[in-house]
Amino acid sequence: MDLKEAMEQRHTVRSYIDRPLPSEVIRLLAERIQKNNEAYRLHMQLITENIEAFGPLLRLILAKGVRNYIILSAPAGPTVEERLGYCGADVMLYAQTLGLNSWWVGGTFNKKGVQKNADSAGTEKIIGLIAIGYGATQGVPHKSKRPEDISHYHGKAPDWFIEGVRAVLLAPTALNRQAFQIEGDGERVSMSYGRGAFADVDLGIGKYHFEIGAEREHFIWAEHS
């Protein structure tokens, strides 16, 4: 399975079976996380066999069986939320290629429990978690906007732009807002996101998905007008 296939197959899964991650899967995930950390000045961390990311009530009614998660953390700084969104999306889709399921968690986790298990270095900013593991189900597609609701191309849209927009609509966003605005003109593409607590995170997730769908060699990013 490649990242495009993973993007099509990945859906939010909140309940997991009691099956530990194999050591080889842990190694591959850790390597992918470290690669992103080094390239984008982040401090994402993989935590395995730990139930403290959620309180007892949430574990009972929502986050059933969550024992593995990635802490989306980084030193404080400009664009940190967008960078964490972008790299978190990469790790999440990579986990899908390894046969895992996932859930992007924004504000419903147990912050004290997470901080207790996090390496304190480089964690000035924690924007959420990605729960991972073997899902009790494969999840279901989320309700989606139409491509024309979030995008505009000056002239006839090329196939790569159409595929990029479609990929963005597969991305998880806070409250499933999908508040993207994507503009294309020739090979130049700009993307912005509406206001909100997780707007910059969602923008980073959306940019990663667009790059996977459109394929990076077809376009260049430009500032949104």
TrEMBL record:
SUPFAM superfamilies: FMN-dependent nitroreductase-like. Residues 2-214 form the Putative nitroreductase TM1586 domain. GO terms for molecular function: oxidoreductase activity. Gene3D superfamilies: NADH Oxidase. This is Nitroreductase. InterPro entries: Nitroreductase-like, TM1586_NiRdase.
